[in-house]
Structures are given as structure tokens and as C-alpha cells.
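can u do me a favor
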């Protein structure tokens, strides 16, 4: 496989797509879980998901189920969701609110919301609760997104995302969720990421998108942590919706040029940002198995848009729900084909510059940790 990954890492015109094993093999999946998802900054949600003291969410990352909690001091913290006594999983629910403390359901060890052990019932004399706090993972928030990193030695989030284009004018921290839809996709997470990274498929697969947007523009930028770029709206259309227009006002702070563009970015490994003139669309792809991915799609708008009289997001939500389903069907088709013994890595089209950038990033990340004989 080293030879095939080296072929992916060549310049685009001479490169070949990734080998079959990276889409199908349980060992490769476990390796990715350890060296990519176990070491990178991953977006687990939005700050608005954790509004109150005690609000929590859990997320499976790199084989770990992480617990994110808002403390009494209103700070967010991420913990390994494991009791310091005999290791019971502390919280199973995906989200909710803890009343004042984190209680282990096994022997009732009780932790403060900041992870300190408060009490261990009938502990032996001399037992020191301060010796058994919950193990913490790194957590940082950026633009209202909550990121977690399991690697204590990872660079800070800002350094990891240093070359991402400046998105400050979108005021992402001010946005609020309108809708979230979860999809179960029977395809490898990289197939989903690759599909997000090109619009070569758009004329055939997405007639509603092709009508509104010039699919030959865009997907021309790639950096160390991302790929993507702006795509232009066709004349006569102001947004990506079933009608091609919307009653939502433009996001405050955008330039006249931004009003004609949709910026698409895949932030490695699994966060996809669609920055539209009036709203932001977010996809996160969570690997479940070599051939299964959970995709969470969210629509965000400013609070003022959300609270306006007659606010109705259905035109925009339907557009992307239709587009998402068209994409997942194709991703599942790729998964079935790429799993075949007849699959041989193929060439990239010039419009797939960003697919190649993602695959090259992947090949460069995974090749050094594969056994040399793989
Ligand atoms: S395993 Fe948690 S209290 Fe015993
Ligand atoms: Fe698509």
C-alpha cells in the first residue's frame, strides 16, 4: 500500500486515487482513528449546545467517548468519560443536563463539573479525593464551534488552523442553529470528504444546484489544514435554495463580492463549512466503520434572522436536504465500487484539485505510520 499512497501523493496530473484498502480495511480504520481522529482538533458541536451550567454532550472520537460539560464557572471542559475507580462509562446519553455533579452509576463516586472527585462513599481512611480527578482532554472554542483534541501534545487550535482563510467577517460565533439533520451514510468517511471537495459531479447529480451556481468556479484552494474556495452564484439568483432566492437578509459584515459567492471549505479531517451570503451550512462526518459514516448537517443564521416575523427556513433546508441525499447515494455507490476487486486507483480530473489535496494530505499523514511492508 505504501507504493499506492506514494502514487496518490504525486502532482495531480500524474497522481492516482487512493487504494481500495483505505476504504474497506478494519486495520486502516483503526489506524486512522488513532493517528488522525486521536490527534487532531475535532468539532464536537456548538457552544449553544451547552447553554447552562451542567449542560453536556458526548461524542465518540478515536475509539473514546468524550464528555463535554459546562462548569459552575461557565467554562467548557472535555473529559474522558471514564470513572477513576474501576473505569465505568460515566454518561451514556448524547446530550442533556447534569444536576450539579457527575455521578458514577456503579459505586456512586461523584465528580464536580470541573472534574474534581468530590466523594467516594465509605472510602478508606487517608483516601485523598484530590488524587482522582477525571482525565481531561483539550478543548477550545472558535467561531462558536467547540473543538476537542485527545492529544495532550497537539499544537493549539489556532496554530493547527493557521492557514485557514480568514472567516472573521462571517461572525460565526453569533450564529444560531435553525435545523440539524443526521444522516447514516453507507460509505467510508473519506468518500464523503472527497465528494464534498469537488463539483465535477454537480451538473449530472444536482440539477437544482447547477441551475443556481456556476459549478465550474470554486474548489481551487488548498492549504495544510483545508481545501475549498468560493463558487459563484449565477445571475438572477441570490442564494442556494429551491427558489434560488430567500427572505433571509445577508449576513452582516459581508462584502458585495461575498453576496455573489458561496465559500466551501473542508477543514481536515471531517468539518465542512458552506458559507452562504445569508446562512452557514455545516457538515460533520463521523466515521463509524470502514463503510459507515454518520453525517450531521446543520443550518446556522444570525439570531435576528431566526427571530424575524414569518421566519421560514424550509426553502433553504429542503435544498440542502435534497442535495445531501443525492450526494449520499453517490457516495454509497462509490463505496460499493471501491470495495470491488475490480477497483484500480484512477486519475484525477483537473476539477478535482481539492479531492487530490485531501487525498494527498491523507496519504502523507497515514503512510509514515503504516508498516513499511503494507
Ligand atoms: S466504577 Fe465508578 S464508582 Fe466504581
Ligand atoms: Fe454533491
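np, heres the sequence
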Amino acid at each position: 500500500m505504501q507504493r499506492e499512497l506514494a502514487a496518490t501523493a504525486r502532482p495531480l496530473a500524474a497522481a492516482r486515487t487512493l487504494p481500495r484498502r483505505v476504504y474497506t480495511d478494519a486495520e486502516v480504520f483503526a489506524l486512522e482513528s488513532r493517528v488522525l481522529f486521536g490527534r487532531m482538533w475535532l468539532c464536537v458541536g456548538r457552544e449553544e449546545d451547552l447553554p447552562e451550567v451542567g449542560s453536556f454532550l458526548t461524542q465518540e472520537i478515536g475509539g473514546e467517548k468524550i464528555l463535554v460539560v459546562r462548569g459552575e464557572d461557565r467554562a467548557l471542559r472535555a473529559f474522558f468519560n471514564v470513572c477513576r475507580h474501576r473505569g465505568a462509562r460515566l454518561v451514556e446519553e448524547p446530550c442533556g443536563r447534569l444536576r450539579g455533579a457527575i455521578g458514577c452509576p456503579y459505586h456512586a463516586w461523584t465528580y464536580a463539573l470541573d472534574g474534581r472527585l468530590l466523594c467516594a462513599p465509605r472510602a478508606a481512611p487517608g483516601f485523598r479525593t484530590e488524587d482522582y480527578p477525571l482525565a481531561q482532554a483539550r478543548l477550545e472554542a472558535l467561531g462558536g464551534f467547540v473543538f476537542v483534541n485527545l492529544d495532550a501534545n497537539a499544537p493549539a487550535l489556532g496554530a493547527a488552523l493557521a492557514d485557514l482563510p480568514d472567516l472573521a467577517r462571517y461572525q460565526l460565533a453569533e450564529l444560531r442553529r435553525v435545523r440539524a439533520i443526521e444522516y447514516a451514510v453507507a460509505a467510508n468517511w473519506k468518500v464523503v470528504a472527497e465528494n464534498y471537495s469537488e463539483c465535477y459531479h454537480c451538473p449530472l447529480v444536482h440539477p437544482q444546484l447547477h441551475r443556481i451556481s456556476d459549478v465550474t468556479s470554486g474548489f481551487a484552494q488548498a492549504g495544510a489544514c483545508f481545501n475549498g474556495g468560493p463558487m459563484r452564484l449565477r445571475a438572477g439568483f441570490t442564494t442556494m435554495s429551491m427558489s434560488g432566492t430567500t427572505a433571509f437578509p445577508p449576513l452582516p459584515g459581508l462584502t458585495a463580492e461575498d453576496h455573489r459567492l458561496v465559500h466551501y471549505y473542508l477543514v481536515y479531517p471531517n468539518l465542512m463549512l458552506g458559507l452562504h451570503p445569508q446562512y452557514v451550512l455545516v457538515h460533520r462526518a463521523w466515521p463509524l466503520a470502514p463503510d459507515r459514516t454518520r453525517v450531521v448537517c446543520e443550518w446556522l443564521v444570525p439570531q435576528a434572522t431566526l427571530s424575524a416575523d414569518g421566519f421560514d427556513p424550509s426553502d433553504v433546508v429542503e435544498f440542502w436536504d435534497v442535495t445531501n441525499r443525492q450526494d449520499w447515494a453517490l457516495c454509497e455507490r462509490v463505496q460499493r465500487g471501491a470495495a470491488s476487486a475490480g477497483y484500480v486507483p484512477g486519475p484525477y480530473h483537473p476539477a478535482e484539485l481539492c479531492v487530490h489535496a485531501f487525498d494527498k494530505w491523507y496519504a502523507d499523514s497515514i503512510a509514515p505510520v503504516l508498516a513499511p511492508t503494507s
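The pocket of fe (ii) ion (ligand 2) is lined by residues 195, 201-202, 205-206, 327 (CB under 6 Å). hope that helps!!
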